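Example with several molecule types.
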Amino acid sequence: MPTAEELAEILKVLANPVRLKILALCLFKERSSRELREMLGISKPLLINHIKKLVNAKLLDVRIAFDEERMVVMKYYKTNEFKVVIDGKVLEEILINSLK
Amino acid sequence: MPTAEELAEILKVLANPVRLKILALCLFKERSSRELREMLGISKPLLINHIKKLVNAKLLDVRIAFDEERMVVMKYYKTNEFKVVIDGKVLEEILINSLK
DNA sequence: TATCTGGGTAAAAAATTGTTTACCAGATAT
DNA sequence: ATATCTGGTAAACAATTTTTTACCCAGATA
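Resulting structure tokens for the full complex:
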């Protein structure tokens, strides 16, 4: 049973087309930073900024792997399974929580 | 089948605690501007601003009534029935639309 | 040496949102 | 006349979010 503030917070993370596309792209297979950048056509700091927010909200998972051959740490992103619903039932819960 | 931009737009309207509370308060009965202002403790222009966005997104309905006795136009707000879902299935649709 | 890859960050600019202040009309009441 | 109520709006200011620019590391390659 979320409060209006809590629900708004997660919706704020989802309410961005770039972040929705990142989640869509990492839905079936994990993607590297570079892959995402090329598919979305956005700058590195911008992608990292969006990824931060998604990881922070636990919508996106990170797997850190060490490439033995190239001696490089790699990060792979994959969308976490989630389901956010906003309907009358959820609003009713908010109403009850705000009255309390 | 929404695009990432379309879904983000409606989520942006929902991603605000005040607007979620307005929808919750107008869920079971229609409310006047004054009622909402007193229950939420916010200023008139601020309430109207939030209401505008909700009505614009078709999440909130307005009924305009003329009070014969007091010769005053009254507006009553009621939450429209809706259900917004964000999950793997929706993200998959976004993925297909963005590839197209 | 210079450039590429991988991983970033910090700060500033740009754009969007949220909120306040001040004002409008029309009718009623003091 | 002054103040209340209903319904607003328009402009300014504040705060947040998005995006860019510039910089950092290390290791491999030309």
